[in-house]
Structure formats: C-alpha cells, structure tokens
Amino acid sequence: MNIKALLKALLLRKFATCLLLLQLALTLGLVVNTILISLDTSKKINDPLMFDVQNLLAIELLPTSGEFKEQKFYQSITEQDLKMLKELDGVISTAQYNQLPIQNGGWNGNFKDENTPKDAISAKDLDYVPIFYSNKMGVENLGVEIIEGRALTKDDDMTAAYYAGKRDELQPNIVITQSLAKAVYPDESALGKLSNHGRIVGIAKDFMVNPRWQGRAKYFAVFGNFTFAQFDFTQNYVLRVEPGQINNVKKRVESTILAIHPERDILDVYSMNERHKEFFSQETGLSSLFTILCILMVMVTIVSNFAHAHFHMSQQRKYIGIRRALGATKRDIILYVFSENWLMSLFACILGIGTTIIINILLSQVITMEKPDILLYFMAVSIIFISGTLATWLPAYKTTKISPVVATHTL
Amino acid sequence: MDMFLYYLKLSKHNLKRHKLFFTLMITTLAVGVAVLLANLAILRVMTSDPIPEKSDKIFSVNMNAWPEKDENISESLHILRYRDAMHILKSNIPTFSIAHYASQVYARNIESKSLTRFSAETRATTSDFFELTNAPFAFGGTWNNENSNDVVIGADLNQKLFGGINSVGKTIEIGKQIFRVVGVLKPWNLKPLFYHATERRAFNKTDDLYAPLETALTYNWGISARTSSTESFSDASDTRAKNVFYMQAFVQLENAQQKAQFQNYIDSYSQSLKDSGEHPFPINNKLYDVNQWLDKNKVVDQKILAFALATVLFLAVCIFNASSLLLARYHSAKFETGLRRAVGASKKNIFYQGAVESLIIGSCCAVLAIILGWAFLKFSLTLFPYLNDIASFDAKLMLLGIVIAVSTSFISALYPLIQASNSSLSAQIK
Questions:
Q1: Which of A257, A274, A291 is the last residue of a domain?
Q2: How many CB pairs under 8 A join A and B?
Q3: Contact status, residue A163 vs residue A73, Cβ threshold 8 Å
Q4: Tell me, what's the ipTM?
Q5: How far is A396 from chain B (nearest CA, A)?
Q6: For the segment B35-64, what is each residue's pLDDT rounded down to a tens digit?
C-alpha cells in the first residue's frame, strides 16, 4: 500500500480532512471520559454494603399532633408501633433509629477516648462519626454481627435517665464498629474503654454507613440504646423481613401505624435497596447522560466517516477508474478505501491523546474524575476503528463498481 | 427582494434534490443544538440572580466564632449562635438585618372540620425578613412583635388551609398552640433560594410559614438544617444560652462605607470574644453578597456543568460534521456553480444564495432542535427528578434555540461557501 499516495489524496481535501480528524479526536476524548465516569459510578454502586440491604424496609414518619410533645406518650406509641409491625407476617425484627445508614449529613459527633488531652488534635474523620440511637436490636436488626464483646441489652437503655434530666451524668454502654475501634484504639482492644459517648461493650462488624466518605470513615458508627422521641424530629423505623417479603410487608405498614395513632404523617416507606439506588441516582443519571451523548457522538462520526469516504471516492472516480484500467483488482481498491479511513483513524488516535487529556482536565474542574489509562484509551480507539470501518463499508463497496471504462471518459 | 425569493426557490429545489444529504445534516445539527438547549434550560435558572434589584447589597454574614480549638473548624461559617445573631440584629448600621433558621411544623385551620394537619416548611425569622428578601405580600404584612403568635403564610399553605382567600386575622393551630395569620404572600418563586443556599436547599421552594424567631424558639420548633454544637442541648429553646451554631444572618448594606462599618462592627464583637478567651482562632469574619454567596455554595450543579461542557463539544462535532458535508456538496455542485457564474452571477450572488440556503437549513434545524430539546429535557428530568422545579423550557429559551440553530448552520456553511464562491470561473466551464 502506498501511504504517500494516500496522504496526497487526503491532502487534496485539507479542510474536510482536518474537520474529520478533529471530530474523531473529540469523539475519542469523550468516549474515554464517558467510560471513566461510568466505571467510577459502577465502582461506587458496587462497593459492598455489608449489611442486610436486600431485606430491610424503612419507614420515615413525623407526628402531626401536639400530643406527641409529651415524651412518655410519644415513646409508648413508638413501642406499640414496633410491636405491631413485628407481628406482621414476614417481619423478623423491628427497631427505631434516629438516622439510617447510607445518607448525606446526618447526626454526627466527634469520637475520642475520654482521657484524650483537651488540646490533642484528632484525625478529621473522627470529628464526624455517625451516632445511631436505636433500641437493643439496633445493630442486629440491620443484619450486622457483633464480633467482639456483646450486643446492647435492655439494661443499657438510657432513655429514662436522659429524659429525667440526668444526661450529663450518663455513662451509657455503647457498641462501635470495627473500623472506628481501630481508629481510636489502634494498638489495643477497645472493649471496656470509656469514650466521650460512653463505655464500649461491643464491637460490631464494619458495614457501609456513609458511602461518600473516604477510606475507613465509611464504616464509622456508634450505637446507643436510646429511644429518641422528639416531636419535630423525623422518626425512622426499620423492619427486617424474610427474603422476598419486602413488598408484602410494605403494603400493610401504613395502615398498621395509623391504626395505633392516626395523627402521624408517614413521609416515606421504601426498601433499603431503593435508598441505596436513590443515594447514587445523580451519579447514575450523569453517567447515563454521558453515555447517551457518547452514542450520539459516535453516530455523528459514523455519518461523517460515511460522507467523507463517499464524497472523496466520488471525487476520485476518475483516478480509481485509471487505477482499475492499469490492473488494480477490486480487492486492491477496497483496501485502498479502507486504508484511507484507517489512516485517518490512526492520525485521530494520536490527536485523541491530547483531546482526551484536555477533556479530562476540563471535567475534573467541576466533578471528580479518575485519570484516563492506556487500556481504556485502546478500548475507545477500537470503537473509533470499528465504527469508521463500518461507515466506510458502503462507499468502499460502491467503488468496486467503478468500471475501468470511467478512465477513458474524461481523458 | 426578488432575488431573495429566487434564492429561496433555488434553495428549496436544492434541498429537495439532495433529500438524504440535507436530512442527515439538519438532523445532526438539530441533535447538537437540542442537547445543548436542554442543558441550558437547567443551567439558566441555576445561574440566575434571584434578586437582581439588590443582590449586591444583601450579604450573608459568616463568622468563625467556634469556641473550641480542638475541633477542625477554623474557617468562617454561615451558621451562628443565637447570641451572635442577636448581636448582629442589634446593630443599626444595616438598612435591614435578619436572622433565621429552618424548621418544619404541621398546621391546621382551627375552624376546619377536618382534623388533617398540613406539613409546612417553616422559616423562624425576624420581622424584616420580608423587606430584605422583597417577599411579595398578597394580604396583610409582617408581625410587629417578635414574641407574638403572629405568622405569615405562603400562597400554597393559604390555599390548603383557607382555599386561597384573604386569611389575615384567621387562626391556625400548630402543636396545640393557636397562631394568628397577619400576612399572606403571593406565589413566590425565588430561585436560587439565596437566603438558604446551603445544605442542598438552593432550589427548594420558598417556605410555607414564617414565624417570629423568639416564638419558634420558645415553642421549641425543631431546627431542620445544619446544626453544630460543642455541648449537648435538649431542645430549641435550650440553644439560646449554649454554643449551638445553626442560625443564619443576612444584612442589607447600601454602600461600601456601610459595609466597612458593619465589617468593623462584627470584627470588634469577635475581638471582645477573643478578649474573654472564647475565640481561639484568628478573627476571620466574612460578608458575601448574594451572588458571591451562591458561588461559594456551588448552587450550580457541578454535574450539570460537566455535562454542559460535553454538550458544547458535541455541538462542535455536529458543526464540523455539517461543515464537511456541505463542503462535499459544494464540491459536487461545482459544475452548477460554474454555470451560474458563467451566465452572470457574481461571487457575491453565489455567496448570498448559499447564505439563504443555510438560513433555511437553520430554520428547519431550529424547529427540530426545539422539539428534540424539549424531549431530551424531559428525559434528563427522569434521570434527575430534583431538577423538575428548576428547568424551564420557555419562549426565551426557544428564541435562544432559534438563534443558536441559525448561527450554527451559518457557521458550518461559512467555509464551504467561501470556497464555492471563490472558485475560478475558467476552471469550472472547462
């Protein structure tokens, strides 16, 4: 194959060739960065959650009547709710929570050993440790195991003392997660230690608390046995159900709760799985948008490739005719047309390295982007080659129809 | 005019003759414009100035009054303590100054036979709130007493509770307490919600209920936005005397001098805290005007911005595509052009004819782009449901769509046209 002749032919249409090259390079850049965004999203979504997400049903509710300002009343209704919900068919256990795992923001506090000197600087991630208040079932109800020490019991319930105004004297027993224990007590067992949130009596297996945080902080959590009953604070119930029972139970939740006391606003009932999906909905949304744009861009590029080959060939009818007359076979001609496209793609791939990096830099000004790698780049390059080849197919086939007689027409 | 009509006829003829070619070109251009347009529908509202008449005069007050050194909070914060906020309100430098916090209550019309209570997003604030934010009153006005049970309600809640009538003087029940309506707002669309642009609330609706700050605290209406504290507190009224940071303050300062005076006022307050050993960090108080404040809180969704960047690139690719298609077309029409030149058409005429053709292409593209853009926006909203209230596909945007479509069509035709009209006469008729 005579590369020189190909180059010469391309140079005949400098402007169109440059446009196509730029187009291919931009498409390459976008394809690589789209793959990066999609991979990053799927990595986030597939980060193991390590609790029983498939079988948890969550309910968010608020009392609407002033009666619930009476803490004892509120608490007794909460207890009745949980009891009745547990009696529903398919429900294994129930518990109330001041907040749920997998959320932004939330109820966080700093966590340190009680004997930490006042001016010691703590790690930043220990300043925002999620504090969960639930009943004694709190940890188990989520499907999280206690791996050291014990679970909380009814004797650990600090509700009465808290509401009796003794909150400052309280020294409750608490359970913390493995990662948190290791972060605060790296060289010794955390069991039995006194923290600023109470005495650690159990260590729970790590589970995903806040997927957006980095490293160990994702798994930080403290559990206390406390029925937080505040009139204007959203109450969360979580029901752990038998496999496959989510939808059946879901149907009966609202009526069960309102039958106990109607003056409640059931804000939402959803499975933990839905919560997880919803949590990442913006990431998945963005990656879908990029994917669609990418497909559109590849389609436009196919159109351009097609048009380029088509018009280039019609322009070169005469030369192709001459070549055929001089003995070139149909195969040679097809190869010639394809080679032109491949040569374009090759140049585009070199240019594409630049556009990929530029687009990546531009995007990372506004969203967090991973850096592109060679493997991904070759994936994108193969997309460009395949789509280019497909687009050239028809014009290439048509050129074989050019009869050597054409050569004689205009001579 | 005659020539224009002739060009129009000629272009129509051309378009008909090369149907597939022009369909391809118009479709790709229209898709490019449509995707950009759908994106602009969202971005335009996100980047808009919510209160253009005085956005440079309203300031969010940020202070770094965190009293403990062992925390990692040294930067200035928009959340303030009750006492910091009260000190700001005491100053007579600003034209208006307000403090507020977000809450949520359930309200019921006392005369209603139904026991249903309606959820009301609530703003516990001070009486100047409405003057500062230019909130539009339909009936009545603000309260006079910060400890009274007087409230102002939004149009939505007025509709739910009272069927939209002038409800000034009517009473509602909230948490067993009786409140009197003293003002009703008109439907109030404030985007971004500059007075609460933090905690992802910048595109929330304006509140349903506005109540005096002191009253809300006394009745312990919960704080439903970011709250940070160095000590435990049991309820809202408990926060008055404690180091609980949750209140936001805004002031209206008319000029640079007033701003400097007020900056000085809050700095000397911080200095007094420092003198009494309550301010461990160097004083770093900041006043952000509305647009600075929205910028700082990145209310423009970064994901949408990233996508906007990609859509611009996509449009560029579409223009390149159209341009190379057109170039090819003019090449293949060389003979025809030569003929027209030979019978007396000047280079200018050829160029004008091409421009008319690109105008027609642009118009077709605009119509298609508006339809596709609308569809693409609807689709994007299913992926980002929270943008539903933000995006608006209105006449202005359609006009913008037309301008973009026609200009992109012209840009893509420019080089091919110059080429075509510059071809030498002799070469063509040979």
A1: A274
A2: 155
A3: no
A4: 0.86
A5: 17
A6: 999 999 999 989 999 999 999 999 999 999
